[in-house]
Amino acid sequence: MFEMYIYTMGSRDYAKHMALLLGKDYFEKRVISRDDSIDKEKKSLDLVLGHESGVIILDDNYKVWPDHHKNLILMKFFTYFSKNSKRKSRKKDKLSESDGNGVLPYILTVLREIHGMFFSPNMSRDVRMLLREICGQILKGCIVFFIVVDENKYQPSITNQAEELGAECTTILDSSVTHVVVTARTKEITGDIVLWAQLKKKILVHPWWIYITYLLWQRQPEDKFPTSN
User: Fold this and answer.
1) Whole-angstrom Cα distance, residue 173 to residue 195?
2) Three-class SS of residue 92?
3) How confident is the model at residue 70 (pLDDT cuts 50, 70, 90)?
4) Could you give all domains of the chain from N- to C-terminal order, each with its CATH number?
5) Whole-model pTM?
6) Contact at 8 Å (CB) between 81 and 95?
7) What sequence ranges are listed for the domain BRCT (predicted)?
8) E strands within 22-75?
């Protein structure tokens, strides 16, 4: 379905070793390392054969793709191999991808959808537009008010994530607001707003509701992300 590359900030020897462990037949010679890059601090699609409009990036580091955020699907970092075995994946880890409990099954669904749309005669042949279209439907209709969220904890910022997901972020607290995002720490110093939200039956959620929705490309149940977390 896709032609795959490995692109790492590690050395070429490391990149080749990872390709061997993951399955060299998947990547053949499509392995890019730090040694191939002119700029050692960032990654670029200049080294990938193909037009930017047809390239999807899966990476757990948002910052290393400053010029290609529109191509990027942000991934959750996970350890694929255990410390005790070079070949054995971490099946006992609750975040293990091999158990189907991780992010990869969700992202595979998105990739299949984009692939189908890309080759549809009535759709755009630009994955950046398709990614934006799919992502922008996930929280469409939500109007979100944030209470003192530490934006530095999230990349991209949690407000940017919400907007990419199709939500409207507002600084005006009125009846149109559907969600109030607050943490346990900030909840203590913004009691009036929290009380207002409770009286008006607005949905109070922790910032992780947006973050996990962003990672999984699927709206998560709000009751799984209480502000007490």
Assistant:
1) 12
2) coil
3) very high
4) 37-133 (no CATH), 141-224 (3.40.50.10190)
5) 0.85
6) no
7) 134-227
8) 31-32, 57-59, 72-74
